[in-house]
Write a sequence for this structure.
């Protein structure tokens, strides 16, 4: 089995920089979700345009919503039969619809 790809120092530095930007983008959006400035439907629209956001795991997304938290996210995922390892980009149309039906509330501002 082959090992990890061999990268030059420049390629590693570029990858670290991209990873940092992705973490910062996800943290900023989760803060907007937590504060109520962004709704779940607004997030899903943003995630369709930004692969950094689409890579967010669904439990992290749900836990960032006001009043949900980690325990509520786990409970909701179990009720809706969504795997805890699922990423936003991997949600099917029925799963998205079920999440929106249960959780979407109007945000104070647009995405």
């Amino acid at each position: 089995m082959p090992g990890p790809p061999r990268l030059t120092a420049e390629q590693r530095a570029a990858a670290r920089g991209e990873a940092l930007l992705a973490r910062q983008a996800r943290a900023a959006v989760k803060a907007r979700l937590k504060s109520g400035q962004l709704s779940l439907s607004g997030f899903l629209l943003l995630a369709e345009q930004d692969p950094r956001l689409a890579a967010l795991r669904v439990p992290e997304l749900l836990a960032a919503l006001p009043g949900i938290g980690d325990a509520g996210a786990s409970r909701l995922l179990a009720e809706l039969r969504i795997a805890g390892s699922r990423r936003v980009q991997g949600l099917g149309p029925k799963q998205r619809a079920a999440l929106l039906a249960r959780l979407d509330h109007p945000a104070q501002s647009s995405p």
Summary: The two ends are 44 Å apart (CA to CA). Residues 28 and 34 are 10 Å apart (CA to CA).
